[in-house]
Amino acid sequence: MEIYLAEPRGFCAGVRRAIAIVENALAQHGAPIYVRHEIVHNKHVLENLRQKGVVFIEDIRDADPKRPLIFSAHGVSQKVKDKAQALGLFTIDATCPLVEKVHRQVKQFFEQNFEIIVIGKKEHPEIIGTVGQVGENAKLHVIYSLDEAKSLEIEDTEHVGFVTQTTLSTDDTFEIIHCLKERFPKILGLPKADICYATTNRQTAIKELAKHTQNIIILGSKNSSNSRHLQETALKAGAQNAWLVDDYSELDWKCIDTLASLGISAGASAPEYLVEDLLKELEKRYHNINKNYVTVVKENINFKL
After folding, report:
1. Residue 184 CB neighbours (<10 A)
2. Which CATH number belongs to the domain containing residue 51 in this structure?
3. What would the mean pLDDT of 55-84 be, rounded to a whole number?
4. How confident is the model at residue 193 (pLDDT cuts 50, 70, 90)?
């Protein structure tokens, strides 16, 4: 079997930083450590941290006031931060620096009395945190589709700005932004798209992978936005099969057995050992495995703790 490995894949700098913050807190303060929402969206990462004494909660009132509380990489609203302060909680912020950049932009638009367009999934924790950076009296719209962009009504087209969720599909978001710029020529946004470098790089690598094989495995959890978009990108790029699985045990091996080639990638919140475990399983099952590397860029970005 010909194996094609996408590079880059797996952990991004924001995920590495968030997990390191939790592990450092455990080392300094001992267990338990509380984390509001899942620190990142990956089943294996969460289970590993639970075993070390991390307690994941949605309501900060469930945190022990004597123990540290960490905000996840997705970020939180200003209301959550204010509530934590009012409760006297000791908090540590693991929000991804690229998400923080979006937060700063939203606040700036609000201060300038701009009408704000947020491109993303309304129910996603990152978008909830982004929208929550400004007050309820903000002129703000959350859209997710091209149709919504086409039908959006803006009161003051002279003062309008947009931001995006960092983990969206680069292709779909480009279409939405292009539509908004055509409809509102004076719209402002960050000089570069808000979609993070890691999301862009992994989607580009998937497109290259699809040129070599029509069968692609993406390691990642179903509630991981960037992992789901890798699956969608693979199918749009021509893959016949694109499986999104937490690990190799979820694969339909009867189907895999019929294939001559296979592509492998991993979402930005999926640890590399999941790829290594899959490769070991493939080597057990098949006599001759030939590994090929499909590299689009070498990542060397790290965020300070």
Report:
1. 21
2. 3.40.50.11270
3. 97
4. low
